[in-house]
Records
---
Amino acid sequence: MINNLTRFRVLQLYKRIIKLSHSWQSINHPLKTSEEQLYIRNEARELFRKNQHVNNLNEIEEHIREGEARIELACHYKNPYPRPVNLPTYSLPPNHNRIRFKSEYEIEDISRPIYLKSYETKEDIPDNEEQLKTDKS
């Protein structure tokens, strides 16, 4: 259940993002200012709507931290788009011929920056029984 303080923080974050989109000025390409403003508003709306069903307080806190991190990165680098990330080679998915262990999923999750959490698509960790059935086929 979401308490009033968490709801207030989420609404304040949304208001902060919308206000940022109205005052945003593109430094590198002044002609693209309106395009970047529109991107910020649309991205905020899309992600807030996508996550409106989340009821777990820990997940909500993670999303708030992600939003704040993205705001800080955008203001610091004057670029509203997500920054590219280079993951260590040990955290990349292995060949499809091999069974992936739970620890590999955990390492991959830890090495992903918080500002890219909304873009991830979590793979389901298959049960060992399902793995064995597929390996035998």
---
Amino acid sequence: MRKVLQSLHARLPDWVTDSLDTVVPVLEVLIISLAAWLVMRLARQLMRRASRTYGLPVSFATLFLRVAGVLVYGGALLWALERFGVSGAVLWSAFTGFATVAAVAFFAAWSVLSNLFCALLIYITRAFRVGDLVELLEPGGTPLVKGRVVDINLVYTTLRESGDASNGTSLQLPNSLFFQRTLRRWHGEAPEATGEADGG
């Protein structure tokens, strides 16, 4: 692009080249902005399709789109600033500083991010669904916890241990726990297990 501009500068009058120096960067920024908007539109469509296919919760789709928006629009902003002549060294320093802070935050929030990722895996692999009766087993087959799944969110899975919605006990287990233990899942009615889990 710069070679094309230099050749135009050599052929055009001064008053035209002065305008060209302003118009071209503006056009480039508009193209970058349009590209970022198209990428985010594509990401929204893909997330809608994935949500329909795998039954992903709305909260997960919203979180994914926010993270994607920060990355896409942040990258577009840095690219646009470079088009306006901001030093590459300044941009690189800003990027590395941001990446360092992000890495520290990532490791600080590793347990939460692990649960977010495991929530996604639960939905994609269909390990269990709301309403299923499940039991986690210790190594060797010793029962650890058992209950009926009443809710799956981005961090916890809630099991009803006994009773009903108004009276009884429930457990909130981190989603990552379901990938650290053996999972037993009952299919069908499982009358004996159901009575034990729901009735106390």
---
Amino acid sequence: AAVLVQAWWRGTLVRRALLLAALSACTIQRWWRRVLAGRHEAGRWAALREYSRKEWAAVRLQSWVRMWLVRLRYCRVLHAARIIQLYWRWHNCPTRGCIQGNYDMREKQLNLHLEISLGSQVYKIHQSIPLPIKD
């Protein structure tokens, strides 16, 4: 009978030790999975930040290029207007008449307003020139 009680007691101790080892292993596994999930989430956030930084840089670069192209177009139109003014003033004399006018830049167009007087006749010209600006 003593041998049976001792065997039962040793079995209980072994089962208790195995249960404690299994619970400890489960606790370690849960902790490790939580650590891996945190690392994975941090990696996802880092990838998202990197992607958004690259997208922002591309958008910024595109806006700079578009601004440069619009400025280049504006400078060409301004240069052409100055050349026209120069030649007109050079050829202008009281017998030929005079030209007056102005221009202004609106959102996507150049507006020209000219008045040409030749003797008693006055010609008014209003023209809008669209500029190639993309939205």
